[in-house]
Amino acid sequence: MVKVKSVKKCHVKVGDMVAIISGRDRSKRGRVIALGVNEGKAIVSGLNKVRKHLKARKAGDESGVLEVEAPICTDKLQLICPHCDSATRVGHRMNDKNLKVRFCKKCKKDITSK
Fold this sequence. Notes:
The chain is mainly β and 114 residues long. It has a domain at 17-82. The protein is built from no helices and 11 strands. β2 and β3 (41-44) form a beta hairpin.
């Protein structure tokens, strides 16, 4: 029997403003810069920073500690509506041109991706 990997769906896209709803960076906002749909994780700019220790590999290299953004589970992210500027759930519907669009569940306006 062959296992087929299924592509998971995600309610956020690259470029969306999101709020973190749980964890160390709770209630902070940032923009999604990368998305790993199959893992269910996203990288948000300026949030969920971790310290990465680098070892010098050659004689001329420097060692040190870097702060980088770590991936965060998309279940902990909530989309910020660009119209009402609040964290909201996302719905899907067909618009007048028969295209599937996302919309804000609070103000009912369409959310366009950049």
